[in-house]
Amino acid sequence: MEGQEFECLKLKNQICFPLYVCSKEIIRRYKPLLDRLDLTYTQYITMMVLWEHTRMNVKELGSCLYLDSGTLTPVLKKLENKGYLKRSRSREDERNLIVTITDKGRELRTQALEVPSGMACVVHLSPEEADTLYTLLYKILDGMPSV
Amino acid sequence: MEGQEFECLKLKNQICFPLYVCSKEIIRRYKPLLDRLDLTYTQYITMMVLWEHTRMNVKELGSCLYLDSGTLTPVLKKLENKGYLKRSRSREDERNLIVTITDKGRELRTQALEVPSGMACVVHLSPEEADTLYTLLYKILDGMPSV
DNA sequence: GCCAATTGAATTTTTTACAACTAAATTGCC
DNA sequence: GGCAATTTAGTTGTAAAAAATTCAATTGGC
User: Fold this and answer.
1) CATH of domain B3-143
2) How far apart are CA B127 and CA B47, in angstroms?
3) Which CATH entry fits the domain spanning A24-143: 3.20.10.10, 3.40.50.10420, 1.10.10.10, 1.10.443.10?
4) Tens of pLDDT along B29-66?
5) CA A56 – C1' C25 distance (Å)?
6) Phi, psi of A21 (to 5 degrees)
7) Which B-chain residues 69-128 have CB contacts (< 8 A) with chain A?
8) Nearest CA distance, A65 vs chain B (angstrom)
9) pLDDT in tens, B1-39
10) Is strand D less than 7 A from the beta carbon of A96?
């Protein structure tokens, strides 16, 4: 039997694969809910940060979201076009782009409450299991070698 | 304090967000290793299935990988161009496309052994923790409402 | 036997990831 | 103190992936 040697190349022995699939599948379940707000998942988590902080530059936003500026630029432009935020250069340091939430952006928050409630039925874990998962995921993130 | 009402819209209370980030970040760590094989992550997991099964149609492949044919078609064409597989129509039902691994595809498997070994240092979990995570992820997948 | 509904895959479009580039600010050497 | 080199911030362009749409073949009901 050839088995042993190649065990580590079997899908069922991968930890990344179910992570990848779970992430994708959950985001797919978000879609119909987010469609009602005309937001993509990335736009949604960006708004989450702005609902809490109201004013940040692209760098800070990127480090909250684990997104680089190349990914964020088109996302922020879309959200600006929808009127949910304003982009402007910092006076002190022209390299800095300050993102500020607008009133319209703030209003969206109330409507967005229906998203987490609509998602409640998607992840069938007990509170303890969810807590364990949460802890393990952040343990991976914290322990990951940089780049 | 406004806090309570919007707790569920804070990034730190999301389970999907760390899943999404973990998946993305781990796949990013795969990249330099997969570059040496000239494979993307999606191409890599596709090859994993073919190393085990050698011959499948697009539908079967998609259900192993949780990918639809719209995503698979370009992936399979790329892999065919590289000479790792062959795509051909089934005689019985012309709609079925049969994917068969080639000798060159089979040979790639040995070279690919360096990928899991190179990834070993990325996920810093004990075997027990990894096992718990694995179980929880598949529990989510199994429990997820369809579409 | 014919038409509607379903299934399977390909194509097209949108979104995301990544690399290369540009511009601004800072550092450091003379 | 002024200029070159480096660092930092963001944009642009390109490639990959995901989602939506389209098209073709088959099945099932009448």
Assistant:
1) 1.10.10.10
2) 26
3) 1.10.10.10
4) 999 999 999 999 999 999 999 999 988 989 999 989 99
5) 19
6) -70, -45
7) 109, 112-113, 115-117, 119, 121-125
8) 8
9) 565 899 999 999 999 999 999 999 999 999 999 999 999
10) yes
